[in-house]
Amino acid sequence: MDNDLQILIIDDSDDDAFLITRTLTRGGLKANYKHVRNEAELRESLAYHWDAVVSDHNMPALSSPEVIQIAKESDPELPVIVVSGTMAETVGIEAMKVGAQDYVMKDNLSRLIPAIQREIDASVSRRARTSAEKDLHYLSYHDTLTNLLNRQEFERQLRIHADTENTPFSVLMYLDLDQFKIINDTCGHVAGDELLKQVTKALQLHIRDTDLLARLGGDEFGILLANTTKESAIELAKRIRDEIQELKFSWKNTLYDISISIGLVDTDEHNGVIDQLLSSADIACYIAKEKGQDGLQWYSEDNEVYHQRRSEMQWIGKIRQSLKEDCFVLYFQPMKQLSSGNDGPHGEFLVRLKEDGELVPPGAFIPAAEKYNLMPLIDRWVVDNAFKYLAETGLGNKNDGTFFINLSGRTLSDPAFFNDVRALLKKHDIKSNRICLEITETAAIDNLTDAVGFISEIRDEGFKFALDDFGVGMSSFSYLKTIPVDYLKIDGSFVRNLLNDPIDRGIVEACNQVSHRAGLKTIAEFVENDQIEAALKTIGVDFGQGFSIAKPGPLK
Asked: What burial letters (b/e) apply to 25-60, b meaning 16+ CB within 10 Å?
């Protein structure tokens, strides 16, 4: 942590302020501390920079909500952490609702250091994003984490390269880290981000001024080697492979072996058709990965494996044609309210595809649509047709009921999607608060910055938001404070086994309890029999969704 942190402590008790300072200092937090006792001293001190504010909850002349309001007026991004010796948990939650980032009981001050660390890191991230948004031009062409070219700009540069006549021999290189998901899942996304930054620095050591390096998404990178030879490109790939292998990523006193798979293709392949060129390099990388860690593979049209992989990509054309010919259909799966009260009808719209009069299972085309960035187009079709149905049936203008629509992680990163949703809402003239958009927990975390921004904007318009498949991530609960949602859908893998597995039942109970304390409603997926439904009612889950309640069916 930075040695020059500035921490402001607000407490009317000198003894309590001393206790807080001593706890933080003994815990290893290297910072400069200042103690103020009243509103006048607080306002005077806020004229200077502070990294975090620690405030007593209940002072005679200054309450924590007042401290939060004054601090946020001075700096909206300033983290405020509330401490108290007698604060009820409901009061703590209320403090967080008015702007506090966390609350800590005075008999458990050891929680202060990780809370301050987390909120300072988050504040730095928020400030960095705010600064980046001021430079829209830069954001349009670069990845915000690594500062490399993003996929869109890389593809644009590839097109320029392909359209230039008499260009020297060039090679497209597609690189994919082998252990990224493992490190992400076991160490968390902060570790994953740090690994990507270190890999970026390692790659930059081998790039000439005439080459292009880009982050294509997730743990994938692309390199365009201009004016080279096949032999030189392969030698460079070997050097990169060895460099990454020697990286030895360290996280919390543990070393992790890192390796990378690399696919290479001559840029003259496919006559300069960029989508096919990238897919060929991607296929080569995929085959390299199948060969084992540290694999290299040069693309060849004669390889049978390439043809098999290529057939999977035929879905790209099929999906585009299906959208053009309106071959997609909407299904609907009702939910059942398990808790007391009557919140009106709830249910989820689901997309299906008809090909030659037969239904195609979603698992056949959605993975291809996700991989090749076609889900935003499908999501637009679903939103348009779901809104149309709700308008024609009148359900979209009733005073109760919530209707769920799935979005993909890639859609969150589509800057035009939000405005399209607003336009469709106006077109069909339905109430926005009848709509709940949902994304999976994994997609939200993988696209955290985009997800938080998108969700905040869409909820300002009156829409609701749900986090799907909750509980599968190792840091699920911590993200509830970061991602602003209204519903939490408990992952079905825990629900279906809760009668036989006490751990799964405990996870369901924990998800439900934490969600309710955060003011969210819960939905259990995979409710497959009456016994599971009864158990969920006992636990206090709000809604159930599954085959024992209702199977998905075509809209009437």
From this structure: eeeebebebebbbeeeebeebbeeebbbbbbbbebe
Residues 426 and 526: their CA atoms lie apart, in Å, by 34
**Which pLDDT score is estimated for 126?**
63
Number of separate domains in the chain: 3
Q: Tell me: pLDDT of 65 over 90.
A: no
Using the predicted structure, report yes or no on whether residue 102 has a pLDDT greater than 90: no
Residue 190 domain boundaries? 139-313
- The pair of structure tokens assigned to 275 is 């989508």
- For residues 479 and 445, the answer to whether their CB atoms sit within 8 Å is yes
Range scoring the smallest mean pLDDT among 6-15, 111-120, 346-355:
111-120
Domain end residue (candidates: 313, 331, 352): 313
Identify residue 245 by its one-letter amino acid code: Q
Please tell me the predicted confidence (pLDDT) of residue 534. Answer: 97
Q: Which of 106, 110, 109 is nearest to 57 (CA)?
A: 106
The pTM for the full model equals 0.52
Asked if 474 and 453 count as a contact pair (C-beta separation under 8 A), the reply is no
Question: Given the DSSP bridges, would you call strands 171-177 and 102-105 parallel, antiparallel or unpaired?
Answer: unpaired
Same-domain pairing of 407 and 332: yes
Q: Give the DSSP H or E segment for 8.
A: strand 5-10
Q: 438 or 372: which carries more pLDDT confidence?
A: 438
Residues 306 and 211 in one domain: yes
Amino acid at 489: K
Q: From CA 151, how far away is CA 220, in angstroms rounded?
A: 10
Q: Per-residue confidence at 344, pLDDT binned at 50, 70, 90?
A: very high
User: What is the pLDDT of the chain when averaged over all its residues?
Assistant: 86
DSSP symbol at 149: B
For residue 275, the domain's CATH number is 3.30.70.270
Structure-token pair, residue 347:
């249910």
Q: Round to whole Å and give the CA distance between 526 and 437.
A: 19
Q: For position 2, what pLDDT does the model report?
A: 45
Give the C-alpha separation, 131 to 314, whole Å. 41
DSSP for residue 521: E
